[in-house]
Amino acid sequence: MSCPVCQKPVEKAYRPFCSKRCADVDLGRWLNGSYAVPGEPAILDETTETPPETHH
Questions:
Q1: Among residues 6, 30, 36, 38, which one has the fewest Cβ atoms lying within 10 Å of its Cβ?
Q2: Average pLDDT in the 3-24 region?
């Protein structure tokens, strides 16, 4: 198996990546929207846009 970011051999400690750097690169791609899981667009309504009120 090779690292999905740089194609180097996988290191057990960082599997499926070869290093912490490649794991961080992959995470960054998810966080900035470079990767996305296909599906229907989310539809928000007023109940999902604001957190529920709490009573103290």
A1: 38
A2: 97
